[in-house]
């Protein structure tokens, strides 16, 4: 099983980019404050997830007309146009989940996607899953530090906020969820959470942990449509050829193994309602081959505020 390398974009450009690597022992640090040889190895071998601030996206649910599945991404902008207060040409629509006639869609500015793709390319990252930062934790978890709080409600719903705004976001979540709520919290005292909830505190069951020991599973990938990576078989073969040659040499020294056996190991072990209905999820998913990022036209865009915030 490959290791997981998580990279976290900050909300403020002046703040550092953080990384965290999941192996039997969790490593973490500031990007790219690691030895270049180790970093290059990780970029080749690890599953990579880039988490962006949840404030950059809004998540919607929309009922789909009866169209072929492959056409769904092309009609999402038209289905959501009336609900958005900006030119849909300036926005990127990424389906996170499609369940029969209901699509869950992330909406983000093209400018954010352009910045993401350029950063990935500049850092030699050719395969990645891009998702909001609250997808980095399991469902039913809330995590906080001195600056920010993230909360994941379910697969496709969650929120991110600065510490000062977090109580407002949490109360909005409570207003939306009428049933009792169970939360596992890290970095936030249960008493503080109860204070945020006010009169709704009696609906809360809170479990506090010193740390998150399992990472979240991303639902979908924002790298879709014009931002979807293209497979570069030339680059892929160039990397495999080096790895295969090294393995063949090692096998020869050991007196066992064939070129075919080595190639097989590399292949298997090295890679690893009715139309128009829509709802915003106020509180609110990766290409594994080598690839090159396709860039759309260089039109400007502004940041969209998450719906309901």
Summed up:
By secondary structure, this protein is α/β, with parallel strands linked by helices. The protein is 28% helix and 26% strand. The strands form four sheets. The chain has a five-stranded mixed sheet, with helices on one face. It has a five-stranded mixed sheet with strand order 11-10-9-12-13, with helices on one face.
Structure write-up:
The strands form four sheets. The protein has a five-stranded mixed β-sheet, covered by helices on one side. The chain has a five-stranded mixed β-sheet with strand order 11-10-9-12-13, covered by helices on one side. It starts with a strand and ends in a 17-residue tail after the last strand. The C terminus is likely disordered. Helices cover 28% and strands 26% of the residues. By secondary structure, it is α/β, with parallel strands linked by helices. It is globular and about 50 Å long. It has two domains: 154 residues, Nucleotidyltransferase, domain 5; 77 residues, Nucleotidyltransferase, domain 5 (2-Layer Sandwich).
Provide the domain count.
2
Shape: globular
Task: Give, in order, the helices and strands.
Answer: EEEHEEHEEHEEEEHEHEEHHEE
Kindly report the average pLDDT value: 81
**Quaternary class:** single chain
CA-based gyration radius:
21 Å
Instruction: Indicate the structural class.
Output: alpha/beta
CATH fold title of the largest domain: Nucleotidyltransferase, domain 5
Strand content: 25-35%
Number of helices, where a helix is a run of at least 4 consecutive DSSP H or I residues: 7
Q: Class of the largest domain, according to the CATH hierarchy? A: Alpha Beta
Largest sheet data: 5 strands, mixed
InterPro entries: ATPase_NBD (IPR043129), GspL_cyto_dom (IPR024230), T2SS_protein-GspL (IPR007812)
Protein name: Type II secretion system protein L
């Amino acid at each position: 099983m490959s290791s997981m390398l998580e990279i976290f974009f900050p909300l403020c450009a002046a703040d550092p980019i953080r990384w965290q690597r999941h192996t039997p022992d969790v490593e973490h640090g500031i990007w790219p404050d690691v030895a270049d040889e180790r970093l290059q190895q990780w970029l080749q071998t690890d599953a990579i997830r880039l988490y962006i601030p949840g404030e950059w996206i809004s998540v919607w649910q929309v009922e789909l007309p009866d169209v072929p599945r492959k056409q769904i991404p092309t009609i999402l902008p038209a289905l959501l146009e009336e609900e958005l207060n900006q030119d849909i040409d300036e926005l990127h629509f990424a389906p996170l989940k499609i369940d029969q006639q209901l699509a869950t869609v992330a909406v983000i500015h093209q400018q954010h996607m352009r910045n993401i793709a350029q950063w990935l390319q500049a850092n030699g990252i050719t395969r990645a899953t891009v998702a909001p930062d609250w997808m980095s934790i399991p469902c039913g978890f809330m995590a906080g530090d001195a600056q920010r709080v993230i909360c994941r409600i379910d697969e496709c719903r969650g929120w991110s906020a600065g510490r000062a705004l977090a109580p407002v976001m949490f109360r909005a979540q409570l207003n939306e969820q009428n049933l009792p709520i169970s939360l596992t919290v890290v970095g936030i005292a249960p008493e503080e959470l109860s204070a945020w909830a006010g009169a709704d505190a009696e609906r809360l069951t809170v479990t506090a942990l010193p740390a998150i020991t399992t990472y979240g599973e991303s639902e979908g990938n924002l790298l879709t449509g014009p931002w979807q990576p293209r497979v570069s078989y030339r680059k892929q073969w160039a990397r495999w050829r080096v790895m295969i040659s090294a393995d063949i040499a090692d096998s020869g020294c050991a007196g066992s193994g064939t070129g075919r056996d080595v190639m097989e190991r590399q292949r298997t072990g090295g890679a690893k309602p009715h139309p128009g209905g829509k709802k915003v999820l106020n509180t609110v998913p990766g290409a594994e081959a080598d690839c090159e990022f396709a860039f759309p036209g260089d039109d400007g865009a502004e940041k969209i505020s998450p719906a309901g915030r």
